[in-house]
């Protein structure tokens, strides 16, 4: 009998039941004393054989691998079967994910976005494409990656995508994210390692279950709801260069608004003389 480990992508998970409580000192939590004291994001289902649930995150694995406690890595090593949110090693999964992001009936983004917002988006993507060569690392160039290829891999066919997917795409077009392209995200890395170790792999969700909730968002309602909150983000970005901007507040707005669409995705775009204030643009949209 062999253990099994399931790892759906979770932004956050409750602390493992095995985590040891840390004593309080003056009302403050002490930092972990060692790797063994870190939150492992691992749940154990006590049975014979044991099963595990491990929470992963959508980031390059190199950002978090050294912080994953040994008990989680040991559970992965001991498991004969590993199940992920989606099977990202399956070409059909990748193809289906790309198809579900497209607008229906041959529509283009220009058909569904306000004119001014569409042109702000286009200007922003032109800026990103211009900056892409300077954002790339020597290691990426050494692997044969070119700026145009990388831009097309991330933003290709953007005019045919639904607004919510374009928003998520734009949110990943930062210098930090561009420089980490070519490094697999944590769940993909684990899937690749599972294949190398000859483990049995599978998925717990279908592509449709990922796409339909986002594709079902009402764009018209979201446009009205998010214009003002996103305008409030403008001062956080105008005093920074694009590559230094902090995008966590954008993600927070998205989460705090019950996953409605954040459509004013470009307040952090390149600040040029032809750009007007957020309030002025809000009046014209």
UniProtKB/TrEMBL annotation:
<dbReference type="GO" id="GO:0016055">
    <property type="term" value="P:Wnt signaling pathway"/>
</dbReference>
<keyword id="KW-0482">Metalloprotease</keyword>
<dbReference type="GO" id="GO:0031090">
    <property type="term" value="C:organelle membrane"/>
</dbReference>
<protein>
    <recommendedName>
        <fullName>Metalloprotease TIKI</fullName>
        <ecNumber>3.4.-.-</ecNumber>
    </recommendedName>
</protein>
<keyword id="KW-0325">Glycoprotein</keyword>
<feature type="signal peptide">
    <location>
        <begin position="1"/>
        <end position="19"/>
    </location>
</feature>
<dbReference type="Pfam" id="PF01963">
    <property type="entry name" value="TraB_PrgY_gumN"/>
</dbReference>
<dbReference type="GO" id="GO:0006508">
    <property type="term" value="P:proteolysis"/>
</dbReference>
<keyword id="KW-1003">Cell membrane</keyword>
<dbReference type="GO" id="GO:0017147">
    <property type="term" value="F:Wnt-protein binding"/>
</dbReference>
<dbReference type="GO" id="GO:0005886">
    <property type="term" value="C:plasma membrane"/>
</dbReference>
<dbReference type="InterPro" id="IPR002816">
    <property type="entry name" value="TraB/PrgY/GumN_fam"/>
</dbReference>
<keyword id="KW-0879">Wnt signaling pathway</keyword>
<keyword id="KW-0479">Metal-binding</keyword>
<keyword id="KW-0732">Signal</keyword>
<dbReference type="InterPro" id="IPR040230">
    <property type="entry name" value="TIKI1/2-like"/>
</dbReference>
<dbReference type="GO" id="GO:0004222">
    <property type="term" value="F:metalloendopeptidase activity"/>
</dbReference>
<comment type="similarity">
    <text>Belongs to the TIKI family.</text>
</comment>
<keyword id="KW-0378">Hydrolase</keyword>
<comment type="function">
    <text>Metalloprotease that acts as a negative regulator of the Wnt signaling pathway by mediating the cleavage of the N-terminal residues of a subset of Wnt proteins. Following cleavage, Wnt proteins become oxidized and form large disulfide-bond oligomers, leading to their inactivation.</text>
</comment>
<keyword id="KW-0645">Protease</keyword>
<keyword id="KW-0812">Transmembrane</keyword>
<dbReference type="GO" id="GO:0030178">
    <property type="term" value="P:negative regulation of Wnt signaling pathway"/>
</dbReference>
<keyword id="KW-0472">Membrane</keyword>
<dbReference type="GO" id="GO:0046872">
    <property type="term" value="F:metal ion binding"/>
</dbReference>
<keyword id="KW-1133">Transmembrane helix</keyword>
């Amino acid at each position: 009998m062999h253990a099994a480990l399931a790892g759906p992508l979770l932004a956050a998970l409750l602390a493992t039941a095995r985590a040891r409580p840390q004593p309080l000192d003056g009302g403050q939590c002490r930092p972990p004393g060692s790797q063994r004291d870190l939150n492992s994001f691992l749940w154990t289902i006590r049975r014979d054989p044991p099963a595990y649930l491990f929470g992963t995150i959508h980031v390059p694995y190199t950002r978090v691998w050294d912080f994953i406690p040994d008990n989680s890595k040991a559970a992965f090593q001991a498991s004969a079967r590993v199940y992920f949110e989606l099977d990202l090693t399956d070409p059909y999964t990748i193809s289906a994910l790309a198809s579900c992001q497209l607008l229906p009936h041959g529509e283009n983004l220009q058909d569904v976005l306000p004119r001014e917002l569409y042109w702000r988006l286009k200007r922003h993507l032109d800026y990103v494409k211009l900056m892409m060569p300077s954002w790339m690392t020597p290691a990426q160039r050494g692997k044969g990656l070119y700026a145009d290829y990388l831009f097309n891999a991330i933003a290709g066919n953007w005019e045919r995508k639904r607004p919510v997917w374009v928003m998520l795409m734009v949110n990943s077009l930062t210098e930090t994210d561009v420089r980490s392209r070519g490094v697999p995200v944590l769940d993909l890395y684990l899937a690749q390692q599972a294949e190398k170790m000859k483990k049995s792999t599978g998925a717990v969700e279908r592509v449709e279950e990922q796409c339909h909730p986002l594709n079902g968002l009402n764009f018209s309602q979201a446009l009205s709801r998010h214009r003002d909150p996103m305008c409030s983000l403008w001062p956080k970005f105008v005093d920074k260069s694009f590559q230094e901007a902090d995008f966590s507040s954008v993600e927070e707005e998205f989460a705090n608004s019950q996953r409605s669409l954040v459509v004013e995705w470009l307040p952090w775009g390149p600040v040029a003389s032809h750009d007007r204030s957020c309030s002025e643009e809000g009046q014209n949209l």
